[in-house]
């Protein structure tokens, strides 16, 4: 049994290749090839657009009796994707492109025709100049005249635009300056607002710290070694209220002084204004020192009067509640007894 994959074939000694019959194929035989559309086209029957690069199974054949410098020209047959109409185009080796033949129209064909016309005109002109030197001078004069006309038209258009354009440069500069000043003013206002907010936050923090320290000081009470009288209970409420009022007044005055000191430390003033402020502060301090002892005396007198009134009302209530009693209340007896013990 012979091998399945053989590289060398057996040729008998009487083999004559000239005796093998040759196939006679037609010259216009067609082949099926796979290709892409070389340009954008539109079908004439249904109006379908076929874009460049779309793939088709086309039939290929050689065009009879058409050559370009010995190169054969090929024709391709494709079908429309919508109506299956036949579209044909062929190669154009002269322009290194493809030429539309039947069944569709090429898009952007007008631009291509204009370019071809320009190339043809340029070629004819070069040929005329080579044979006729006078034509060269005529073409140069025509070109120079055309350039001068174009420059003159351009200059006229510039002058016309300058006449119609009414631009006020001074007004533009004023508007620009106004906008700059507005932006600067807004920035200054924002800076001032930030400073105020920072100062308010610092003042609040300091006030909270001062109030916390005052509360801690008021909570710490000294121990009394002396014995208290029974009648001192009636006077405690009034003394506590008076102390509370005095503490609130002192806190308000200290807050004002602290806020003024902070502002004076932050803001730099002129010498004259600073001296006037110092004189005013000194006068206010002197007035406060003069008024403070009078206020304390008045508060003490009012406190004593209130305590006396409370004691009298309490003693009258006790006497009225105990019938048949001799005018001396039990509280007064206890007070006399405690006084006698202290004297002993």
From TrEMBL:
Keywords of this entry: Coiled coil, Metal-binding, mRNA processing, mRNA splicing, Nucleus, Spliceosome, Zinc
Similarity annotation: Belongs to the CWC16 family. YJU2 subfamily.
Residue segments, region Disordered: 206-256, 273-344
Function text: Part of the spliceosome which catalyzes two sequential transesterification reactions, first the excision of the non-coding intron from pre-mRNA and then the ligation of the coding exons to form the mature mRNA. Plays a role in stabilizing the structure of the spliceosome catalytic core and docking of the branch helix into the active site, producing 5'-exon and lariat intron-3'-intermediates. May protect cells from TP53-dependent apoptosis upon dsDNA break damage through association with PRP19-CD5L complex.
Comp. bias regions, Low complexity: 313-331
Annotated binding of Zn(2+), by residue: 43, 46, 80, 83
A Pfam family assignment: Saf4_Yju2
Keyword Coiled coil assigned: yes
Species of origin: Xenopus laevis
Oligomeric form and interacting partners: Component of the spliceosome. Present in the activated B complex, the catalytically activated B* complex which catalyzes the branching, the catalytic step 1 C complex catalyzing the exon ligation, and the postcatalytic P complex containing the ligated exons (mRNA) and the excised lariat intron.
Source species, domain of life: Eukaryota
Any GO BP: RNA splicing
Keyword Zinc among record annotations: yes
Coiled-coil residue windows: 107-205
GO molecular function, one term: metal ion binding
InterPro entries attached to this UniProt entry: Saf4/Yju2 (IPR007590), Yju2 (IPR043701)
Protein name: Splicing factor YJU2
